[in-house]
User: Fold this.
Amino acid sequence: MLRGSAGAWAVLGPLLWGCGLALLQGGMLYPRESRSRERKELDGLWSFRADFSDNRRQGFEQQWYRAPLRESGPTLDMPVPSSFNDVGQDGQLRSFVGWVWYEREITLPQRWTEDLGTRVVLRIGSAHYYAIVWVNGVHVVEHEGGHLPFEADISKLVQSGPLSSCRITIAINNTLSPHTLPPGTILYKTDPSMYPKGYFVQNTKFDFFNYAGLHRSVVLYTTPTTYIDDITVTTDVDQDIGLVNYQIIIQGSDHFQVDVSLLDEEGKVVAKGAGAEGQLQVPSAHLWWPYLMHEHPAYLYSLEVKMMAQTAVGPVSDFYTLPVGIRTVAVTESQFLINGKPFYFRGVNKHEDSDIRGKGFDWPLLVKDFNLLRWLGANAFRTSHYPYAEEVLQLCDRYGIVVIDESPGVGIALVESFSNVSLQHHLEVMEEMIRRDKNHPAVVMWSVANEPASFLKPAGYYFKTLIAHTKALDPSRPVTFVTNTNYEADLGAPYVDVICVNSYYSWYHDYGHMEVIQLQLATQFENWYKAYQKPMIQSEYGADAIEGFHEDPPLMFSEEYQKGLLKQYHVVLDQKRKEYVVGELIWNFADFMTNQSPVRMIGNRKGIFTRQRQPKSAAFLLRERYWKLANETRYQRSAVTSQCVGSGLFTV
Ligand code: GCB
Assistant:
């Protein structure tokens, strides 16, 4: 029996989210150290317990947050950041649905607990999906959504007595409902001849494993009590003058002074400004260019913000430095322009996914992935199907890898998931996402969803509202969603700036018949373009291949078939990119974990790299193609770089 979401929540715990839409209060600047700010990372081992009680509510009934977790029962050591699913040997924990509890006790520097002019903030980078947080047993914050950060000012709690330590407890529930993003349903199986009492499973309409836990770092950081709360930067170019518009929000006092300086990569001040809002002009500006589009891509300036205020405890200063890339983005009927030049997305779709860690952030993995992207000659990726860690976007800024930043709006398939409750949550998620990612030059477009059932009647209003809201929040970037709906039936497509289409010709139908791909793909492009006259991106295409499986003539699941299928797509892409196709993103960069099913052989195998990041034959094919494309469109070709392509090296 399929129970409604209310039933599922009642069983799985007290989830208390409201649904009123209000513009988000406060900024979400990345916690950086500065002369006025300290940062303490809480990565490492946390105490952990999954609440296996029938109603999953024992933790709340017994108030596990009141005392150290070890006092209410046995605990496990759990690494953070990491998903909890794959680190143990317990199959039940791997597929656990409900509340899990994390706890960490930490010692705080004396100054943090004694200096009342210091603000202490607890920031959680990602807790999938719903989180409730207590500090020393006191409830401090709740958050819905597994891919965006949230924080709580805990100064009062840690400065209220002779405390040197603090205990952080985080309860996390990975249950998805038709109104969560992504959506899901709890299915109760009630046939007593087949299932034990109370048996349920969680169903989803997306194709990746619903990993859960503390996926990104938990940090404590400090600011003065009057502080720089948010910075918004947009850029423009007038002839060779770079224009940097900035807006700074200060909290804690109305009497402050703000000074800003823009420094180039050599540390030389190139522009100065005063006041919380203004425009800096940079003559002969170095623009931020994508990888391989310029001999010096990804040029980053530093915006140094200094705030001084008079407060009751005396003068206070706060400092924050933001990397700034000066670039423009624009869309015409058939082109995507960066700095006024046509840009072609040669790229991949990714997942945050790896062995053991699941969706847990990992620096070595990240650096490996960027080395592979640059080895491929890729210049772009989509954060399919949710916002990635901030550190990922920071590397994109630094290396010139262009990003289509996607919300967790994946698997929106039920009519219920187009309701006003769902829409309001989706609007809030876009606010959180833009608040976090708005200042990254690498982010050139927002994607509000992937493959929603955009043919359903309510989809028209849903996407009209969602896209209008996204554009109102950020008028500087185009907005899209990724569709696999027929061009005639799609009710959301009229509102996007770029048409992004996924198709799997000769994979999910016409199995084995690669000979039909060219015709079907050309028809797809032509139909869409005729209907909309908007630039198009082939936002997914691909085939599963098990590394080491070889079949010639090619058979499905062999490396030869994957390669052969891609080649057929490339023929048409090469024709249409001369007209209005502005990009191609392979599905997928690497193999990744999914739910178990007869059509998934230990996950989705459409990676051109294995899950361990080793290349399949298709990776070499794509590499050859991407470097060739890069050379065709190279802003300024240099002999060194073309030599490097041949020798397997590359310049950055
Ligand atoms: C899609 C989805 C992606 C899947 C992929 C596949 O259209 O957007 O999430 O993993 O197809 O391999 O089926």
Summary: The two ends are 56 Å apart (CA to CA).
